[in-house]
Amino acid sequence: AAEADVAPADHLGDGDDQIFDCVIVSAGPAGLSAGLNLVRARRSVLMLDSNRPRHSATLISHGFLSRDGVSPLELRKLGREEFERYPEAEFHQALVSSIEVARSPSGREFVVRSQGIRGSADRTARAHTVLIATGLLETLPALPSIRAFYGTSLHSCIECDGYEKLDAPLALIGETDDLADWGLLLSHWSSDLIVFTNGSSVVTEGD
Predict the structure, then answer these.
(1) Nearest C-alpha neighbor of 74 from the set 84, 90, 60
(2) What is the pLDDT of residues 168-196, one digit of tens each?
(3) pTM over the 0.85 mark
(4) Geometric angle at alpha carbon 55, from 49 and 58, rounded to 5°
(5) Integer Cα distance of 61 and 166 in angstroms
(6) How, if at all, do strands 107-116 and 123-132 pair?
(7) H/E element, 70
(8) What is the pLDDT of residues 15-66, one digit of tens each?
(9) What are phi and psi for residue 93, nearest 5 degrees?
């Protein structure tokens, strides 16, 4: 999160004069959760999302209380409906192109420019606070056709998808110093396990 040196707005403006208390970049579970709590605190929130979620390859989401086994798309849909139920909430489908700090009569503020997608218009918004909730981006090994299996039989989160692979033959691919630790953790779900180091020497005899 980034914060400008100003106090929260005490009312909503109209049109170009509106300054949001917070602009949230990305409407995944983290961004939606933050947005929901902010609008309940009577903060004006603009949420910008490009509809290109990190978990777009994932068919089922696990471990989220009351929604275990839900599709990530359904989870985002439900979260957005809850967020937009409040008058302080605004959602705009767009790709953020720049975030800048500008001087204002009250001190400083953020200027967030975004490019509309799927019929949405381009937009420039002003805000006291910007919350970046875009999550992580996996760097997959350079292996042939790996993208074709990502999210179905190839996963990046043991805690999310390990249970569905109980006692199945598994391969763990990695090059980090904690690879042996990950292998031991993964063995809780299956003992039929091969660890591939991709040519690196991160697994020692002791490991």
Answers:
(1) 60
(2) 999 999 989 999 999 999 999 999 999 99
(3) no
(4) 140
(5) 17
(6) antiparallel
(7) none
(8) 456 899 999 999 999 999 999 999 999 999 999 999 887 777 788 888 889 9
(9) -85, 110
